[in-house]
């Protein structure tokens, strides 16, 4: 593949983009996220192709590559890149099928129905199920011959490697961190971010100011409560499920660590530092943080720009690892997306899919993308899943952001196994212990586990058993 030509072309595109003011989020360009580009099992990063190679490219059998895309947020930059990809791969045409929502999460249903795309950009959450179902093509034949492969961060590569086979190429990574308002901390006399659960509550007491509509601490209570709650379970030293070697799951809702996390939630409530309105949803919490009404809360790096759009001074947004619980660990989750190839596609389409994926995950593309994005303002401190570049290379972030992003690579983990199937049962138990001060965590989570075992566990295990 003509990687030098790609780098030159992207550089030219960047110049044009800066003049025209174009730009886009990787997760929302025409074909997906800052991801996909390729080179069939041949080495990337070589000099521009010789004329005979270009002629050979022209003589290849035509391949139509089917992609699922959304209609939102396409722009000049993404269109320019797509055109460049097609110019360099004249044997490939793109059949872009508009599918709103989260196309990657519907990939399984598409494979079952026989109308799945040839490649997909899937959330990390879905990958265990997809790997267990056998619908993903192993990528080793491509990655083993790609000279950029060694630059991808091992922690993320390992997440999607089973029995030596690589099934997904990490594209975007967003760690769940802990956000705090530096201005509110300073006004309350809090000199540094909390490192433990107890320190968080003590700091929240000082920051809490109901008369000025300032809450010391916020977490999800009205929806998706299992999303944040799982971090506290990990910090207490346990988990909500256990993945067995054969792909089946065991529920561990009654694990002592789950009860410890539940009691901490109750303590946040009883100490009066949690948001008083428990009906606030995710978007409300992020907006309130941006309005200077929240002292601290679980906070992902890619929410920074949204908070800034609500008025907070960027310099007042502090980010750190989550406070440690009884385990002493500041464990958190790594969310993101990775590119996969449909194992049911024919070989020519698989090869074309790899061309597309490696193209959009190349260093040349990512450099152009982030340089372009840097002109748009309010960037997010995300993790680029490569060791040879960092988002801090392109933006002036506080020094702490670089440190916390590096630390998150080590302490981050995937969401609890089976979350998509079991999460709603955890959600209801968490809501109950927050709403009812007399609720018994042990009883609520035992009841939730029993109901989940009755309604969801057998079906999950049947679908995921290897």
Write the layout of secondary structure elements.
Layout: H1 3-20, H2 51-59, E1 63-69, H3 76-88, E2 92-98, H4 107-113, E3 119-123, H5 124-133, H6 140-143, H7 154-159, E4 161-162, E5 165-166, E6 169-181, H8 182-187, H9 197-207, H10 225-235, E7 241-243, E8 249-251, H11 256-270, H12 282-290, E9 296-300, H13 304-309, E10 317-320, E11 332-341, H14 347-360, H15 363-373, H16 399-411, E12 412-413, H17 419-435, H18 441-464
Parallel strand pairs: 1-2, 11-12
Antiparallel strand pairs: 3-11, 4-5, 6-9, 6-10, 6-11, 7-8
Provide an overview of this structure:
This is Sugar ABC transporter substrate-binding protein. Keywords: Signal. Residues 44-53 have a biased composition (Low complexity). Pfam families: SBP_bac_1 (PF01547). The chain is an alpha+beta fold and 466 residues long. The protein folds into two domains: 3-174 and 335-400, 3-Layer(aba) Sandwich (D-Maltodextrin-Binding Protein, domain 2); 177-332 and 416-464, Periplasmic binding protein-like II (D-Maltodextrin-Binding Protein, domain 2, 3-Layer(aba) Sandwich). Helix content is 44%, strand content 14%. It is built from 18 helices and twelve strands. It has helices at residues 3-20, 51-59, 76-88, 107-113, 124-133, 140-143, 154-159, 182-187, 197-207, 225-235, 256-270, 282-290, 304-309, 347-360, 363-373, 399-411, 419-435, 441-464, and strands spanning 63-69, 92-98, 119-123, 161-162, 165-166, 169-181, 241-243, 249-251, 296-300, 317-320, 332-341, 412-413. The strands form four sheets. Strands 3, 6, 9, 10, 11 and 12 form a six-stranded mixed sheet that branches. Strands 1-2 form a two-stranded parallel sheet. Helix 3 links the parallel strand 1 (63-69) and strand 2. It is globular and about 70 Å long. The model is unreliable at 1-51 (pLDDT under 50).
């Amino acid at each position: 593949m003509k990687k030098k030509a790609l780098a030159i072309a992207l550089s030219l595109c960047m110049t044009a983009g800066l003049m025209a003011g174009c730009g886009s989020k990787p997760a929302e360009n025409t074909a997906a996220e800052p991801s996909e580009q390729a080179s069939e099992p041949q080495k990337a990063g070589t000099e521009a192709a010789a004329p005979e190679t270009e002629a050979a490219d022209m003589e290849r059998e035509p391949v139509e590559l089917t992609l699922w895309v959304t209609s939102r947020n396409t722009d000049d930059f993404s269109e320019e890149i797509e055109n460049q990809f097609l110019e360099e791969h004249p044997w490939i045409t793109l059949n872009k099928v508009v599918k709103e929502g989260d196309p990657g999460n519907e990939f399984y249903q598409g494979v079952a129905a026989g109308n799945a795309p040839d490649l997909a950009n899937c959330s990390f959450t879905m990958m265990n199920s997809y790997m267990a179902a056998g619908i993903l093509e192993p990528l080793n034949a491509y990655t083993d011959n790609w000279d950029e492969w060694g630059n991808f961060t091992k922690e993320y590569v390992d997440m999607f490697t089973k029995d030596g086979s690589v099934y997904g190429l990490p594209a975007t990574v967003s760690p769940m961190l802990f956000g705090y308002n530096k201005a509110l901390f300073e006004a309350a006399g809090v000199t540094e971010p909390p490192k433990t659960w107890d320190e968080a509550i003590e700091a929240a007491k000082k920051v809490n100011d109901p008369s000025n509509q300032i809450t010391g601490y916020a977490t999800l209570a009205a929806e998706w409560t299992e999303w944040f709650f799982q971090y506290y379970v990990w910090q207490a030293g346990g988990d909500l499920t256990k993945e067995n070697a054969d792909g089946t799951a065991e529920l561990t809702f009654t694990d002592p660590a789950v009860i410890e996390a539940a009691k901490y939630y109750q303590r946040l409530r009883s100490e009066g530092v949690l948001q008083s309105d428990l009906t606030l949803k995710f978007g409300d919490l992020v907006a309130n943080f941006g309005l200077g009404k929240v002292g601290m809360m679980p906070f992902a790096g890619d929410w920074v720009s949204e908070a800034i759009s609500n008025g907070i001074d960027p310099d007042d947004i502090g980010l750190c690892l989550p406070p440690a619980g009884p385990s002493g660990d500041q464990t958190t989750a790594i969310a993101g997306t990775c590119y996969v190839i449909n194992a049911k596609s024919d070989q020519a389409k698989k090869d074309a899919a790899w061309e597309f994926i490696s193209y959009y995950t190349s260093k040349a593309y990512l450099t152009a993308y982030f340089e372009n994005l840097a002109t748009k303002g309010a960037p997010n401190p995300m993790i680029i899943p490569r060791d040879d570049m960092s988002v801090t290379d392109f933006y002036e972030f506080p020094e702490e952001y670089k440190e916390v992003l590096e630390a998150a690579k080590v302490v981050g983990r995937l969401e609890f196994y089976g979350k998509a199937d079991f999460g709603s049962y955890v959600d209801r138990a968490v809501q109950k212990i927050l709403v009812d001060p007399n609720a018994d965590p042990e009883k609520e989570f035992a009841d939730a586990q029993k109901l989940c075992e009755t309604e969801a566990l057998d079906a999950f295990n049947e679908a995921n058993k290897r």
